[in-house]
Amino acid sequence: MASQAKGGARVALVAHDRLKPAMTVWVARHRATLTTCEVVATATTGSMVQRECPDVAVCTVLSGPLGGDQQIGALIAEGRIDALIFFVDPLTPMPHDVDVKALLRVALVHDVACAFSERSADFLVAGGALASRRS
Ligand SMILES: O=C(CO)COP(=O)(O)O
């Protein structure tokens, strides 16, 4: 994360399996913004994004079920993330549901700009949440 000096926000991308295709499409639509950002993602989400959008540099943490959601949460707690784009699947039970809830909770605790769906993520971009770091 810290190694890339870019002007845009520090953005975390996470998507549950059913929504990973939507995440890659979303990233492709917003690649002009995201190429200015420091992007971190859970492992599988990040590898799909990287494959479909190689111009968007992505650092990855572990896969969500293996602790990646907690790693993103720790980055948020340390003040190292400005925005969380998390495409949450509300229709599929998750073995790591407690980690998902913990990530959402810590994002709220630290008042990070959050979007949990494609349309709400569009609003974050339109509102400038990814244009710069929080002051
Ligand atoms: O499970 C996830 C979020 O809860 C996402 O993790 P992956 O991107 O590794 O699939």
From TrEMBL:
EC number(s) from the headed UniProt entry: 4.2.3.3
Keyword Coiled coil in annotation: no
Keyword annotations: Lyase
Active site per UniProt: 69 (proton donor/acceptor)
Pfam family of the protein (one): MGS
Enzyme type, top EC level: lyase
InterPro entries assigned to the protein according to its UniProt record, in alphabetical order: Methylgl_synth, Methylglyoxal_synth_AS, MGS-like_dom, MGS-like_dom_sf
A GO term for molecular function: methylglyoxal synthase activity
Name of the protein: Methylglyoxal synthase
Gene source species: Plastoroseomonas hellenica
Gene name of the record: mgsA
